[in-house]
């Protein structure tokens, strides 16, 4: 069964949806260009944020944050067409370098969902790890991100953080650890 995000273009515009054993439409935007012409499309997935560009590569038509407990932050890329004459050209996939900045952005978006002291402890920890990232200290980044996972576990066990936010932060934390293990 398919699990993942789907970006597509049709006569109504550009759209983003999500398959997680069923289909959920997430967001859409109108397009000014005719649908029967070549469309230049760029999709940037960074953490739980997805930007879809069509034509103008500087301003996204869709800028969507998946705050659900089932947000996907890693996976594979594929293309398909359904009931249409579609051609693909120059497909390029490049991984983004995960960083504590990604987690800080997610944390700031959910600040209202946490008590001030719990938000502050998570933020201070990430800010400190960010200094090790800047220095390229892989061992220290990994060590302190493992400590961050313990802090997240503590907050979950004591019902200081929602399961949804915990899942998003933990998944992003794991991607940072895996990235730095490869350095």
Task: Note down, in words, how this protein is organized.
This is FIMAH domain-containing protein. Helices cover 38% and strands 21% of the residues. The protein is an alpha+beta fold and 183 residues long. It folds into two domains: 1-96, no CATH class; 100-181. The strands form two sheets. Strands 1-2-3 form a three-stranded antiparallel sheet, with no helix packed on it. Strand 2 and strand 3 form a beta hairpin. Helix 1 runs antiparallel to helix 2 and helix 1 runs antiparallel to helix 4 (163-181). The two termini are 34 Å apart.
The helical percent reads 25-40%
Helical element count?
4
Reported for the largest beta sheet, the result is: 3 strands, antiparallel
Q: Which structural class best describes the helix and strand composition?
A: alpha+beta
User: What coarse outline follows from CA principal-axis ratios?
Assistant: elongated
User: Strand sequence of the main sheet, in spatial order?
Assistant: 1-2-3
Count of extended strands: 6
How many whole angstroms does the radius of gyration measure?
A: 19 Å
How many domain modules?
Answer: 2
Q: Roughly what fraction of the amino acids lie in strands?
A: 15-25%
Name the helix and strand elements from N-terminus to C-terminus, one letter apiece.
EEEEEEHHHH
